Amino acid sequence: MKIAVVGIGIIGGSFCKAIKKNTSHYVIGLNRTKETLAQALSDGAIDEIGDIDSLKKADIVILATYPKASVEFVEKYGEYLKGKIVTDSAGIKREICPQMVELSKKFGFEFVGAHPMAGKETNGYKSSDADLFKGASYIVVPCEASDEAVNTICSLGLEIGFGSVKKTDPEEHDRMIAFTSQLPHVLACAYVLSPCCPNHKGFSAGSYKDVSRVANINAKLWSELFLENREPLIEELITLRENVTMITDAVQQGNKERLEQLLEQAHQTKEMLGE
Fold it and tell me: Whose CA is closest to 163, among 114, 122, 118?
C-alpha cells in the first residue's frame, strides 16, 4: 500500500520508521518543517517527500498531529481524501470521532480512530524510533467505518510491531485514558511542583524517577488533551483527591491501623493485577 503520514514528529516519525522496517509499504511524508522531511528521507524513514496532491495516491492517511489540528487538516483538505482510509493517533476520541465521521461522510473517506499506547518524554522527529510500538497496545476505535477498513488498520498495527489491538468505543477510550495516561501526567506535574523538588539530588532514587518521569511534558499538547477530556479526567482527579485525603487523615491522626489498612489495600490491588 501507499501510506501518507501527516506530521513527522515522534509518533509520525515512528510510524514511518516502523512501516519501512517491518513492511514493504510505500511511505509518503508530509510535514510543515521541510528540514524534518529531508532528514526522514535521508534516514530511509520515508520514500517520498509529499505535498497535498500526494494524498490522492495514498491508500491510507495517518494523521499524527494534535487532535484539533487533525480535524482542521481534514476540514481543509478533505477533497483529497476521497476513497481513502484515514486514521489518527490522538489521545482523545469523544471529541474527535463525531467530527471525523461527519467529515468522512462529506468527503467520502473512511475514518478509523486509533491511539498507539507508546511514547517517550522527549518530542520531535529526533526522538522517533522504529521499535517504539514494539509490544505496545494499539487502541482502535471503529467510528462507523466498515469492517474492511477497521481490519486494514488493525492488521497494519500488528504488522509494524504492536503487540495487541484493543477495539473500543470513544467513551470507554476516553474514560480509561483519563485513568491510565492523563491522571499519571497530572500526578507527576503536581509532584514536581513541590518546593522540595529543586533539592532532590542526593536524596532521590527510583521512586522519584518513577513518579516524576512524565512531568517532562509537552504542555501545549497535554493541555489540549486534558481540556477535551475534562469530564472523565475530573472524575479521576476527584477519586485521587479522596484517596490522598484518606491517607493524609490517617497520618495526621496518627492512626496506624487505618494507615496500614489503606496501604495494604493498595498493595493487594497492585499484586492482584500483576502489572
Answer: 118
Where are the alpha helices (H) located in the chain, listed in sequence order?
10-22, 34-43, 67-77, 96-107, 147-159, 170-177, 183-192, 206-212, 219-228, 230-252, 256-273
The x, y and z cell numbers of residue 103, run together, are: 467529515
The fold of the 2-167 domain, in CATH, is Rossmann fold (3.40.50)
Rounded-to-integer distance, Cα 102 and Cα 171, Å: 18
Domains of the chain, residue spans: 2-167, 173-273
Per residue in 223-237, pLDDT (tens digit) is: 999 999 999 999 999
Rounded Cα distance between 182 and 194, Å, is: 19
Tell me the pTM: 0.90
| CATH architecture label of 173-273 | Orthogonal Bundle (1.10)
Residue 195 φ then ψ, to 5°: -65, -15
HSE toward the beta carbon, residue 45, CA cutoff 13 A: 30
What per-residue confidence (pLDDT) applies to 101?
98
Cβ partners under 8 Å of residue 255, min gap 6: 249
pLDDT in tens, 46-87: 999 999 999 999 999 999 999 999 999 999 999 999 999 999
Beta bridge partners of 48: 28
Contact between 80 and 63 (Cβ < 8 Å): no
CB 112 within 8 A of CB 84: no
User: Residues 190-223, buried b or exposed e (16+ Cβ, 10 A)?
Assistant: eebeeeeeeeeeeeeeeeeeebbebbebbeebbe
And the C-alpha cell for 265? Answer: 489495600
Rounded to an integer, what distance in angstroms lies between the CA atom of residue 134 and that of residue 180? 19
